[in-house]
Design goal:
alpha+beta, Alpha-Beta Plaits, 36% helix
Amino acid sequence: MTRPRIIRNEIYHVLNRGVDKRAIFSDDNDRLRFIHNLFEFNDTAPAPNLAYHLGKKQSKEVGLPKIERRRRELLVEILAFCMMKNHYHLLVRPKADNFLTLFMRKLGTGYTNYFNQKYKRSGALFQGKYKVVHINNDRHFIHLPYYIHFNPLDGFAPSWREKEIKDHKKAMEFLENYRWSSFPDYIGRKNFPSITQREFLLKFFGGPEEYKRKTTEWLKAIDFEAIHDVALE
């Protein structure tokens, strides 16, 4: 896949996975650290020095150090995210042409340093440079947020990708309670609200209740053809 030119205020789907498809999140502390990094590194200021054992003042959201500094200037709007055991998805809108590259460099380097120090390993954690695709038509834009938020079903109802879900209600309940995704925040259940900038998508989809309703509809009639060329799997 040819890497797209990054243009400010355009929307991009970003994915990276562990080298050799290895796990990049071994426990909830790793997941919380990545959430913390999504917030802290999304700033035009230099990345803070986040050693593995850090100060006493903590963020209420993730139980990790709170960085005291000036008001943030975002590198990207994180429209949606989802974390799986060996990969993650982001839907982002860069604030300047070079800001996606800067954000992903800070995020990848910062999390790799943390992971290698914690698990006493060295070398690359991620499988090369992150994958990125430009979301430049309505068909992709409408369906991709659903797809990103549905990824956790791989561990709950693996046949969902073949449109074989036995209990749609239980599948939705699972997604609503899956912490490592922006989906709970999109349907009005406070999870990690400071990580994402949701106003744009919620306005488009008609608010939290309507987004939940449309998500349920999409789950019952999954349209992979609409996104097969931008899913990045």
